[in-house]
Amino acid sequence: MTLTSKTRGANSSTLPPTWANYGEIMKTYQSEVKLKLIAAIPDGTSAQELSAIKSQKGSKRAPDVVGVGPSFAEIGRKGGLVSPYKVSTGSSIPANLKHASGAWASRRACARRSAR
């Protein structure tokens, strides 16, 4: 994430607050890290997220973090849309829910978009 992103907040795309306790997780994160999370389309689809990465590239609204299913995370990796990032809890995530290089991982694959 760039310094500019950090000062304005982090853009997320589809992280529904009622799904997987995302609402509480984001609230706690914002409180602890003091970084605003801006949710563009909280109830969108994984396809919409990948589309937003492509269409908003270079803009202030481009997603910094997305929550997509593993098949879409792999499409994003193959398309150069996400940057490798290994989470600190990566060793506890089952192999089928993460990429070996760290391009994506999670209970529902989470990915960071590639550099703007």
Number of domains: 1
Sheet with the most strands? 3 strands, antiparallel
Order of helices and strands: HEHEHEHEE
Distance between the termini: 9 Å
Q: What structural class should be given to the helix and strand makeup? A: alpha+beta
Large-scale geometry = globular
What is the percentage of strand-forming residues? 5-15%
Summarize the topology.
Elements: H1 3-8, E1 10-12, H2 22-33, E2 37-39, H3 46-55, E3 65-67, H4 70-78, E4 82-83, E5 110-113
Parallel strand pairs: 1-2
Antiparallel strand pairs: 3-5, 4-5
Task: Describe what this molecule looks like in 3D.
The protein is of the alpha+beta class and 116 residues long. The protein has a single domain (3-113), classed as Periplasmic binding protein-like II (D-Maltodextrin-Binding Protein, domain 2, 3-Layer(aba) Sandwich). It is built from 4 helices and 5 strands, in the order H-E-H-E-H-E-H-E-E. It has helices at 3-8, 22-33, 46-55, 70-78, and strands at residues 10-12, 37-39, 65-67, 82-83, 110-113. The strands form 2 sheets. A 3-stranded antiparallel sheet has the order 3-5-4, with helices on one face. A two-stranded parallel sheet has the order 1-2. Strand 1 (10-12), helix 2 and strand 2 (37-39) form a beta-alpha-beta unit. The longest helix has 12 residues, at 22-33. It is globular, with a radius of gyration of 13 Å. It starts with a helix and ends with a strand. The model is unreliable at 1-6 (pLDDT under 50).
